[in-house]
Amino acid sequence: MTTGKKQPRVVKGSTVGEQGSKAAVGSTHTNPYLFFLDAYQKKAKAANTSRRFKIAQCSKPAGNVWNNMSDAERAPFVEMAKERKARMKKPIPKEKKKNALPVFRSRRSPLKLVKVNTALTKAQQDAVKGLGFGSMLQLKCTMLSRDFINRLVKHFNPVTMSLEFGRVRVYRITADDIQKALGLSCGTISVPTDCQDRHVEHITKMFKRKKEKELKRGVTFAMMQQVFKRKKHDVKFQTSYVLFVLSCFLCPTTKDVAAMKFYPAVHDLKQTHTYAWAEFVLHWLAAKIAKYKKRSAKVVEGKKDSVGVAGLYILTNTQWV
Hints:
mainly alpha
């Protein structure tokens, strides 16, 4: 049992590096004792050349020496602790913040779509095929590596719509590549995105509750998932499935609701399979990556832009020749 002042807690097994121990250099502490411990360990190691010598053996002797030191003897280590504390309080320079790479974030995951597909009935699957989205039923990918995603986005040029690895290796991404990777329709009619009052009224009438006059937040993921659980393959199910595929996989945003610009595409379900979905997804991918790369435009309406999961899946599965 030891007497005197309580010894500071020390991490056992610390090793001494080129600039000192992990306890003193590798952390963000401001404890003067740990600076003294670093110097004590270095001195003890230099005096003991035995292979069995361990840094942890210095903790107790160092604590006893520290407790018997005067304020004048502790002053150099107190000053070192103050200097570190002052450095920690300094704000990050604005230039460093400006040049920092934006963080890729997305709340969307292909896993959500895979789970929905596995629960569909045979009649619902046939209805999906009739809409021209039968290839979505074959989706098996549930996640993508974040590091790999960042690398693809870094080398993707949204202006030329190509992956550029230097001047020699340039791979152009076309609508045909998207059709091969995702099996989407390459129709001739552009996907309509001009949402008008009649489109909003159509969706509101379909999804609003009896006591509600309008949809407060729009068509949420939870609302669409409830429609899937009904096991019906009617117009409401078909509308929900197209909106769900667009919102969580092909062209996701950072919100948990279907974007209003998708409403015109589901207004007439008979025309859905004739739209140029491959071209639409390609332009969506290019636009989102362009916003992502411009840090000043990364925050839109208080939300961070989300690069489409399907777009990254396209870059991953494109056949580069």
